[in-house]
Structures
1.
Amino acid sequence: MSADQNLTRDLDQIEGRAGSMLQGVESRAAFMAAGFRALPLLAVVPAVFVLAQLMRWAGGGEPALLPLPFVLLLSLFAPGIPAARAAAAARASRISRSRALAEADRQLDLSDRLVTADEFLRSDARTGFQQAAVEDAARRSEAAASTALETPEAAVAGSRRLPVWGALSLLLLALSGWVSTLEPRLMGGGEGTTTAAAEAGDPLDEEVADAAVTAEERAAPAPPEAVPTERRAQDPAEAKRSESGEDVDDSVKESSGRTGAGRSSGALSSSAASESRSAPSTQGQSSKPAERDKKKRESKKKKERKTGDQPTPERRPEDEQSGATAGKGSSKGSNRNPTASEWQSKDQVTEVDDQEVEDDEDTDEDEEEQENRGGVQPSLRDRRPPVSRDLQIGFGNRANPDANGRGGPSEQKKSRGVASLVLGVPVPDRVKGRPGPGPTKITQERIEPQAEEAGAIVASARAARSRPVPALSSVELGPQLRELVRAYFLARRAAAPPAAAPPAAAPPARKPQ
Amino acid sequence: MTDSNADTARADAQRFRETYESIRAEVSRRMVGQADVIEGVLTALLAGGHVLLEGVPGLGKTMLVSSLGEALKLSFSRIQFTPDMMPADVRGTSVLVESEGGGHELQFEQGPIVANLVLADEINRATPKTQSALLEAMQERQLTIGRRTIKLDEPFCVMATQNPVEQEGTYPLPEAQLDRFLFKLVVGYPEEGDYREILRRTTGEQEVELSSVSNAETINAMRSTVRQVPVPEHAEDYAIRLVMGTQPGSAYAPELVNRYVSLGSSPRGAQALLLGAKVKALLAGRFAVATEDIAAVARPVLRHRVLLGFEGLSEGVTTDQVVDEVLAKLPVPQEAAG
């Protein structure tokens, strides 16, 4: 038992050392983890301080609230408080005995011998192997108790954020220092200029405003308390004016960029036109025509930009109108149908110039639109010459380039007349490819029969039997049938006179059923 | 608890190590390299389990098992599994024989499974029906044919081989069958230095003759010694958490398991972990299982008990990676307890 007591004493000693070491490591880890979690407080304190300074300065007071070193200390203390609390909590928690011994096992490379022995020591009835394990641990525990344990590194995540928050904190502290140097802001006359310049956000204007304020402050110092009140009274009205755009000077408008002076008249008209076009929707058409008009105008604008210095031609009213707007009281008396779709309205060309201008650009779009509608539509604006009525199929192997599809295999047929009014899918004249494998040709060949040699068997005389025939077992007859046949012959033999009667006189044998 | 018990335990453990070393040395006379595989096969044999050897052809899987049979002086039989093999070809069947009096009677003819060491060569070439003929023998160590039950002699160990490359015309082992193998050992290519020795031994004039260094009784005694090795509580906890770590959705399963594994290990995996760890502990000169022993056998024990899902297969994740991830993420029980 003394060996067990020695081992228990050694284990206690190892546990104490390893436990206190682990507690220290855990405390440090908790401190650092909590500190890294609280890193944003490094920047929060200076930020709050700067805000307070700015508010105070905006109120006309002295911006310097606290001395800068004090703010710096406060910033450092802010994340330190939760970190210290976490470290204290970690130190208060107890490291379990098995964990402390396991750490010692790990560091001393003892393969769980100490933990295992500690567990087996608590057992009353140990097996031979358990006792051997305890004794094995006892041999090593003395050396383990005297060996120093290394303090493991506490791995804490989040240390990479430290420079970021530290830099931000220093930046804010520098800003705080700069704000502290500002002179107290005093409000007086000429406030309109100051406000306008401040709202414009122009540094030059701000300097001018500051200069004006300083000059007026020297001339007639106003009580600092009255200035913010007056300004607050004016602010809502000014906000209203800025919202409604009424009674605002052009200079102010220009500075805020709300007059739209930089925009071209074309842009204005186009916006107006698009607004007017998107209004009617009762004719079962969506706003797609208006969108297409917009796209076209944009492409036109691009073209105009390409032409460079050429003067912008005056926009024709036809461009700004569409078939969809005809029902809204257009006084032009044009022949446009208000129910017509966009592609139809495009076809109804009123001026030759218009056709020439839009010709190149619209051709591709027309084709795309027709494809989208599911087939080739009659196009009155198709400027290709009409196909000839030549019905011949082609020139030799070459297809007739002018074929209209009615004289034989050619391109897709184009509808004419009533068929043009029907929307439908295009039907090709013929399906390319062979419809079937074609006629089957069967060839029969007549082959003369050829003689084949067959091995002839030479007949020979069969020799007489040389030996007596042995008893042959009748495999066909069963035992019952055999008995029946035997009985029949015995009966015949008994009934017959000694001079045997000819067998022909015997009654016929009856076959067994 | 007496000192004599401890002395007996120490003597048993010492004898265990010596016998193990002699068997390993004898087998290594014929087998060049593959020290891990030899150790794994011997560990499984002494732990009372069966082994599945996986490797490409020509690496000496069959030779290893036959060498073991020679070195151990055990009855050895080899079954070459083919697609047309029937369960009766493995277990045996009743045949009609002529009796001395001229009559006929049914007599049971036992199959090749009735032996101490059974080499099931290319086991995945047989149909699942035939593969299942091994199930009862491997788990219950007995055969039931009709109304006849045959107790198999101990030690009984099935050492199956399979080729991972030629998958055409093969039948993957069912999960129930895989679970019955204590270890799945992957036989890799030999080292460069081993090639010369392999060529010298296999192409020379003299053949290496192995002598038997042990027998069935010794092996059974060694198995009994293994069973006596105690497992401390923290090692048990570690084995349980390791097995649970392979089960998706469990508290110890890492993200890799939850994502790629569709079926984890069964409790039979924990049993195999502890049995293998006991042998490792004895071989390391310890008298109780440590967590490092469990970690050492985790791969061969768990790699065939983890079933990857479709996503895992498509991503090329292997079961060894899964086991390594579980080992890496699993906290040691003492640390987890705090």
2.
Amino acid sequence: MNILAQLIVSGVSVGMVYAVIAFGYQLTFATSKTLNFGQGEALALGALVGLTTINFLIGQAIGTFWAYLLMLPIVLVFGMAQGAVVEWLGVRQAIRMKSEAGWIMATIALGIIFKNLAENIWGRDPLKFPSPLPEQALQIGPVRVQPMEIAIVVGALALMLAVEIFNRTSIFGKAVVATAADRDAAGLMGVNTSLVITFSYALSSLSAAFAGVLVAPVTLTGASMGAVLGLKAFAVAIIGGLSSGIGAIVGGLILGIVETLTGFYISTGYKDVPGLVLLLLVLSLKPSGLFGKATIKKV
Amino acid sequence: MRRLLPLIAILALFAVPFVVTSPYYLHLLQTIAIFSIVVLGLDIVFGYTGEVSIGHAALFGIGAYTAGVLSMHFDLGLWPSLIVAPIVAAAFGALLALPALRVTGPYLAMVTLAFGTIIQILINELVPLTNGPLGVKFSTPALFDWRVYSKTLPFLDMSMKRMKEAQFFMLSAVALVLVVVVINRILASRYGRAFEALRDSPIACDCMGVSVYRHKVVAFVASAAFAGFAGVFFSYSEQYIAPNNFSFDLSVLFLLAVTMGGRKSRVGPILGAAIIVYLPNLLADIHLFRIAAGAVAAVAVVAGGASALRNPESRARVVVPVALCVAFFAFSLFLENIADYKLAVFGVMILFVVYYLPDGVVGFLKQGLAQAAPGLFARKAGSAAGPAGDAFVAAPQVDMERPLLEVRQVVMQFGGLKALREVDLEVRPRTIHGLIGPNGSGKSTMMNVLTGIYTPTSGEVRFEGIDIAGFKSPRIAALGVARTFQNVQLFGELTLLENVLVALQHTYKSGMAGIAFALPRARADEAAARARATAILAFVGLAELAAEEARNLPYGKQRLLEIGRALALDPKLMLLDEPAAGLTAPDIKELLAIIRKIRDHGVTVVLIEHHMDVVMSLCDRITVLDFGEKIAEGRAAEVQSNPRVIEAYLGGAAQAA
């Protein structure tokens, strides 16, 4: 029983990382029906920029915890800029050319380029990210939890909440929602939809970069750290539904927990398999995802 | 001549191993042939159905590992593998495509990407089955020892190793030519037409009984089978496979090959395969890379310059890609060490191809040639009509005692809006039933409910006694319900004849295998369908335009073509959604005659129309809807004098009177 509880707790923190990345997919899918196939690379870049920044700040004799906090805004701004570049180079033109698959190829290509650049700047070997919180695990009831795992859950929820509040209350958020509901109509009402799409890509990469610095202290940091995470988040986004914020969280938790359980009870080698199985199962049973709404075709 | 072409190609390719004596280059050519098979298969999915697969390397790997497992555990060699591997790969393809294609969107791309990564992990993990990271060794088989003839034919005198290599190259070449032939046949068949049609108008495709979902799945499964087939050749050609051979990067390379070579052609994917096979060499040698970049820049300058001279307006469009090509060449001169930036260069290539070469090299050349010599690529008369058959088969069997269509208490709710409120409707067999009402009264919603585009929130829709509420459109079409669309939904890029042929899909009895082997039965099916389609076009008065593309038709004729296409389903019930909209007076006269003839052939018609003279002169019974409710039903005269109908059309005046 204790083992099960312990596994579920670690599954939750993994799952919340997936949820944040999947949330990023949802943001762009809502406004433009496209998503960034290089999201994993956005995550890795965020983590690596974070690493350089935090090391610089620690070098200025700032404590690791404060250095981490000071680093966050820099990473978030970098994430936004990176997302805007992806949108500008990879998505905007493809949408304009009405090319169905162009954006998929273009975002993959940008992902490859970013990864290659990261390898040349930071090297191919995984690096250690300084942990802002003590690495000593806390004993809470029957389970042991690393403080950073709690920080991941809190940080992930805070980010998603912040974006939701922004969308619901600010006027620009309303423009985002309007574009998501009907891009053409929003455009005719004077919403600058292409700016909204750029912005959604900026927010999407911001989420990925944030997920990168959240997860970096508990794993190794490197140019290829994002590939598998980005993939898992695909599964999460589809399981939860590409249009539902709650779906991303629930999907993330399901996948995170199932993976840790598989890793423990079957074999760590097969840890990545349930993602695909769940993905195919959900698509067969409820194609719009557990929390997604079926779309209505117009004739 | 055309039928001899594959044979000539095979013979020409047979000569290659005697001309190319370097084992290295022969192997390179062989790899190109093998990759071509994968890329040609991928083109069916990517080029024709417009879906993206980022998992073809994994399917290719599954084929290769099937050969590996058969040889390691069952001691079975090349030949059994060539049969088993495509089946295994196709099964995996079905496993992915069946769920992933149920929804429109980038789902197939996402699922195949996940699949590609996970298969690689699985191959690594399943050590007892696959030998894990250590990989599998193969030895190239000798087909027969031709050196016994070397006395008479001196060029056959060679070492055992070289003979094996030459023979395996020949085998791969035969496989490639056969694949090209089979793919050509599939694409020229009803499947190819369905692939074109489903991109033009998926909804019309479904409503003609040609399920978009099923055809996309078929395309993907066939494509997976080709990838698996090629995988076997790959393992025997490389003589060693390991999980790393089948990575994400290879899947992306395959996609690049299709795009760069040119989609929707046979030459394009083969050219693309040649490029991606040669690419690693290019990116490994800085001198070679500079030369290639220089050549590309030179071609861009010449082609761009020519285009700008001929058409000054295109100057702005041309200048960016040309500048990029030149800049890229300059960059290659500064680049010291290419190995580290290999992937970035590869990424830049993809971006460039996606934006500036969307039709690939073949498309680019075709465009250039078409400008230089117009008429070279004019559509061939191959799709012209043959001898005509009968437009109608025997009148459909219907039970005259009960209504053909019974709608009971149907509600259709969109969020808070009720587009249909507990509507009842009865359509008696072999009548023309009018459905009228002001704009927004729910007529088209009713059509969409009847044809399965919408699932009603509640209520029953009985067609010949079967409740079809919730059935998908293709199934309803198969039961015998055909329709036309208010906003015309033709397959614009297909000819008129082909538009009708798509709807005649249900008359074909032979399957994919019959088409691949060009069995007499498959040919008979096609000939019969063409005769029938010609007759149907004659019936709607479009016979002489049979070879024209549908998008070139004037509006009125498009509506007639839609009726002809619906007739091809041999429907029991035909739903016409505003067939007279936008028609001129003489056209309307023609339309009236056609609709009457359709009824006289035993087909029941439901007619939505705003032209009251059309409705009143044609309809046996009329139902009137207003704000989603039925407000009147009866014969024309009864409806015309009904005060609620007058009120609905003219407002409250009737009440005051």
